Amino acid sequence: MSRITATRDVGLLRERAKEVRREIVKMLTEAGSGHTGGSLSAADIVAALYFYKMRHRPEEPEWRERDRFVLSKGHAAPVLYAALALSGYFDRELLKTLRRIDSPLQGHPSSKMLKGVEISTGSLGQGLSIANGMAMGLRMDGLGSRVYCLLGDGELQEGQVWEAAMTAVHYGIDNLCAIVDNNGLQIDGFCCDVMKIEPITEKWKAFGWHVMDIDGHAMEQIVDALDEAERVKGRPSVIVARTVKGKGVSFFEGKAEYHGIAPTREERDRALEELK
Amino acid sequence: MGERKGSPSPGGTSQALATRDAYGAALLELGKKRGDVVVLDADLSGSTKTAKFAKAFPERFFNLGISEQDMIGTAGGFSLAGKLPFASTFAVFETGRAWEQIRQTICYSNLNVKLVATHAGITVGEDGASHQALMDIALMRVLPNMTVIVPADGRETEQVIYSIADYEGPVYVRLGRMKVPLVTPESYRFQLGKAHIFHLGKDATIIATGIMVSASLEARQILKSEGLDVGVINISTIKPLDAEAVLRAAESSGLIVTVEEHSVIGGLGSAVSEILSEKHPVKVRRIGVGDTFGRSGKPEELLEFYGLTPDAIVNTIKTSL
User: Fold this and answer.
1) What is the ipTM of this complex?
2) Residues B200 and B315 in one domain
3) N or C end of chain A, less CB within 10 A?
């Protein structure tokens, strides 16, 4: 089982992110269905978490003092599976089984079926509440563990996200960092056309969060923001990461139609050329 | 299981206690024994009686405000961090407003979260239909991994709370607002998944749950005075259902009558019918609230209005024999 070690070298992290993207494209093509755009948009963020920021032990997935990752936008399962495989939680070969009837790699992540998945997600809007509970529970035990929660921007239309946003501030949950993959698109089109959610940063600020607005594909900005979040005390942090849906593959970029469909074999080959 | 001593004492005696009060007291005791217990509420801690725990252990109590969905998710997070969360609010909001959170986060991931809801059924009273949970058993029963428990009185409630603390997995406990007489015998010990057979009848057996156990025992006495032998079983664990007890009742009696303060669709009556129709078909009559919403009124008036009284049970049995 190959295993990538942690690094803060942004050049290396960019390579890791590219490798994550290659695996995403390959596994989705193999599966024949799944969410391409929102997996690729989150690749840099997830690579920074798994290969730099998070303290975790792939050989000991339930290590008590680990940091936790909650993929609230569960449809981006491929980006999580790629990061887990490259970290060494399971063999990379398993990625080919995505969405098959005998596979632990469910269409949306299932914590009961795959080690390394902290909690089953897929029904949007629920992850931040879970992350709050986790973070408060870990804090009660005096563990230094931090909790990271990745949300979609379309997901912010779910009311429960804002219930949880209030809770995190009310209880001063500072071992929590939310990240919004702000790619501007949802299944039915541009978020601003479907249901306007801007101004996103102002909304989080109004709820009392420490807000960072970054380019979600600039690795330097991502690692800096993750470090800054750890220094903030007394309140939770959110990184609003401006991203491009389908990022890394020119013909997927910015297209709502690639929210929920997989690349064809021909598209995969062209995509892998671009991701060399 | 022994014959119950003495006659039931409906309508409130010195021993009458609301199941929610028993919950509040048990939770406090549990909090003293176990440091991993955390309690969550959604702005109804005075009514659900979690306030007792909150006062004793403020650092382990989390009021989420009026946001049931967030409360369920947060409870799930606490369990993932190794805590034992109890999450409480009114049954209608806990199971209805947050049903999807219970499905996706709690049950699908099989989290060790205890959902203890109060103010179930029509006996919420004057607040009316918006606050009367008549479909919560159905909503919880359909979820894989979920255990569903409806205690009959204060004594059973206390035992249920201690019992589920030692059980790993999601549990829904349905409690009420008003005082209910003590119906379980002093020697009674709740066992998860086990029905309590008061008696098996030759003519009919009533299978009841929650506050309707008391009315059913009363109905038995009335029918006894008329020469009929009618049994009573308290099914507090509705899921997993004690199929053996239900089948024993069907073997003993040609008529089974289920009684619950819940819709006749999807609750105890449905659960019992599912077993009997496949394993031992006998005549079944389901007593509960029909396919309708509740309304305002005094609890006793509402029980009368919806046919959930000892007399209504007696009439159903007599016309069905």
Assistant:
1) 0.96
2) yes
3) C
